[in-house]
Amino acid sequence: MNMDRLDWLVGQGTPLQGELDIPGDKSVSHRAVMLAAIADGTSRVQGFLEGEDTRSTAAIFGQLGVRIEAPSASVRVVHGVGLEGLRAAPDDLDCGNAGTGMRLLAGLLAGQRFDSVLVGDASLSRRPMARVIDPLRRMGARIDAREGGLPPLRIIGNNVLQGIDFKLPVASAQVKSAVLLAGLYATGETRVLEPHPTRDYTERMLSAFGWPIRFSPGVAQLSGGHRLRGTDVDVPADFSSAAFFLVAASLVPGSDLLLRRVGMNPRRTGLLEALRLMGADIQALSPGEQGGEPVADLRVRHARLRGIEVPEHLVPDMIDEFPALFVAAALAEGRTVVRGAAELRVKESDRIAVTAAALQALGARVLETPDGAVIDGGPLHGGTVDSHGDHRVAMSLAIAAQLAGGEVRIGDCANVATSFPGFDSLARSAGFGLRTPEANG
Length: 441
Prior knowledge:
Blueprint: E1 8-11, E2 17-20, H1 26-37, E3 40-46, H2 52-63, E4 67-69, E5 75-81, E6 93-94, H3 99-110, E7 116-119, H4 130-138, E8 142-146, E9 150-156, E10 165-167, H5 173-183, E11 189-193, H6 201-208, E12 213-216, E13 219-223, E14 233-234, H7 239-251, E15 256-263, H8 270-277, E16 281-290, E17 293-301, H9 322-330, E18 335-338, H10 351-361, E19 365-369, E20 372-376, E21 383-386, H11 391-403, E22 408-411, H12 416-419, H13 423-430, E23 433-435
Parallel strand pairs: 2-15, 3-14, 6-7, 10-11, 21-22
Antiparallel strand pairs: 1-22, 1-23, 3-5, 4-5, 7-9, 8-9, 11-13, 12-13, 15-17, 16-17, 18-20, 19-20
C-alpha cells in the first residue's frame, strides 16, 4: 500500500466468523531486528511484521552495515555485526512513522563511535522526544533536536556513556527501552524505575539474546560489558492488532472468532481485562510461549457489553488500545469512564480528541476530559469521519461502522500499513463490510 491518502467506505457486514492469523507483534519485531543486528552471529526472525514501521527499522540497520535477508514473507535472517560493528550511514536514517523505532534507536545509537541523524514522516516529526533525550544526555549522550525536543534527532557519536539510576517521571516502555539500550554501551550499572509497570519486551528480548539483566514489574537493571548472542526469535501475533477483532466480535451479534497464537504479555493485555469487566466472552486457549513471550489462542463470541469505570491500574497496559475501547464503550449499555490516559494525547495523533470527535460525528455521546473521557453508550449513525492519519483510530472506526445505522466514510487510512498491513482484506474475510472508493469503481 502506498502512503498517499486512502479512504475507506465501511458499512454493516456479517457476523464475524472463522479463524484468523493476526500479523506479528510490532514491538517484538522492532526489538528482534535491533538486538540481532548488534549480536554476535546470525539470527532468524520468524513472524516478523511486514509493516511500514518495522521495515523502516530493518532498512536503517541495512544502512548501518548489517546484512539482512528476507527469504520469504515475515522472515528475516539478520547477520549480526556485534556490539561495536555498526558503521556510519551515508544518509539520514528514516524511521517513517515509527515512534518506537526512533526512540529505541536514539538509545542504541547514543553509544556508537559515529554520528547519526534520525528523521521521520510529518506525523513523527511532530511527536516529542524530550523524554528520551533527557535521560540519554544524563548518561553522557549528545543529542540535538528541534525546539520542543522534536525530530530530526542529531546524535553525536564517540562519547563515554555512564550508567544511571533513572526514575521515569511518566511510565513509558519506549523511554525505558532507550535507556536500557544505551546501558549496553555504558560503564557501570543502569537501573530504570517506573511509576507503573510497562511492557517488558526489551528486557525479555535482551535475556533471550543472552545479556544478563534483572527485571520485575516496575524495575529493570543491567550493566555494560557483555555480549549478545545471535538467536532465533518466533514473533507472536500482535495483541494490539488482535484487539480490533476482540472488540468487533464482542459487539457484532452472532460472531464467533478464533485468533491464533496471540501475544499475552501481561503488560499488554489491559484491554482484555477491561472487556471482560464489561461482560465480554473471551477465552484464552492452548497457552504457550514464543520468542520469550507468553501466547494463547483467543476465542471471542458476541456478548452484551456494559459500561464500566475503567480501573486506572489497567491504563498503562492498554494505552494503544484505547481507540478500540472507546468504540466498545460507545456501543455498550450505560456509562464508561476512562481516567489516567493523558499519554494518549502525544501518540500519532491526540488520540482522545481524534477518537472522541469521530465518534461524536457518528452520534456517540463522548465527553472529553484532560486524561480520558466519559462515554454514554447508544446507537450510531453513518457519516464522514477522519482518522487524521492515525492507524489505530482508523481501524477502531471501522469497528464502529459495523454497528452504525448507515455507511461510514473514514478518511486518511493509509497509515494502517505501518502496523497492520492487510487489515482491510483480513477484516473483509472475517465479515467486515469494508471497501475503498476505488474498489467501488
